[in-house]
């Protein structure tokens, strides 16, 4: 099960204000905020470093039924998840389930990821979420090709 850290997800109350703050402290590469209607969130990506493949995903809920809305209300935002790139999301998801991890969101298409990073691909990227412990949420992503 090969997994590579892809991004770190942060939940914020106001994506525009937070990404402007990141620009102020030197993070110049910030994508436009793009809605992901399936999960009622808007996301923007920030390159963590010029030479790194790891980015920061900034998430804002767009509706009260967004899965991150309660997180924002209870914790006030902050670190939400770690995302790992995998080659086969179905296989890796099953391996995690077999090891006792709790699947929160089964694999689903995520064109918003591709749109946000201006990736042109025939097949959409796919994501899934798992609870690794009571306090750690991980996301898997199989990038579209």
Count of separate DSSP helical elements? 4
Query: What is the CATH architecture descriptor?
Result: Roll
Head-to-tail CA distance between termini: 20 Å
Q: Quote the CATH topology.
A: 2,3-Dihydroxybiphenyl 1,2-Dioxygenase, domain 1
Radius of gyration: 15 Å
- What is the CATH level 1 assignment? Alpha Beta
User: Strand count, sense and closure of the main sheet?
Assistant: 8 strands, mixed
What are the segments in which pLDDT stays under 50 over at least 5 consecutive residues? none
Mean pLDDT: 88
Give a verbal description of the structure.
It is built from four helices and eight strands, in the order βαβββαβαβαββ. The protein has a single domain, classed as 2,3-Dihydroxybiphenyl 1,2-Dioxygenase, domain 1. It has 145 residues and is an alpha+beta fold. The longest helix is centred in the first third of the chain and has 10 residues, at 15-24. The protein has helices at 15-24, 69-75, 89-98, 111-116, and strands at 4-11, 34-36, 41-47, 55-61, 78-85, 102-109, 126-131, 137-142. The two termini are 20 Å apart. It is globular, with a radius of gyration of 15 Å.
Secondary-structure topology with pairs:
Layout: E1 4-11, H1 15-24, E2 34-36, E3 41-47, E4 55-61, H2 69-75, E5 78-85, H3 89-98, E6 102-109, H4 111-116, E7 126-131, E8 137-142
Parallel strand pairs: 1-4, 5-8
Antiparallel strand pairs: 1-5, 2-3, 3-4, 6-7, 7-8
């Amino acid at each position: 099960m090969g997994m590579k850290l892809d991004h770190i997800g942060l939940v914020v109350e106001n994506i525009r204000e937070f990404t402007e703050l990141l620009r102020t402290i030197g993070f110049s590469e910030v994508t436009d905020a793009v809605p992901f209607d399936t999960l009622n969130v808007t996301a923007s990506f920030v390159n963590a470093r010029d030479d790194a493949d790891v980015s920061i995903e900034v998430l804002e809920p767009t509706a009260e039924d967004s899965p991150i809305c309660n997180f924002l209300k209870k914790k006030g935002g902050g670190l939400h998840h770690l995302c790992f790139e995998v080659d086969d999301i179905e296989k890796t998801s099953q391996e995690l389930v077999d090891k006792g991890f709790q699947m929160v969101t089964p694999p689903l298409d995520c064109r918003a990821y591709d749109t946000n990073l201006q990736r042109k691909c025939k097949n959409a990227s796919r994501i899934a979420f798992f609870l690794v412990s009571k306090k750690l949420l991980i996301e898997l992503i199989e990038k579209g090709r």
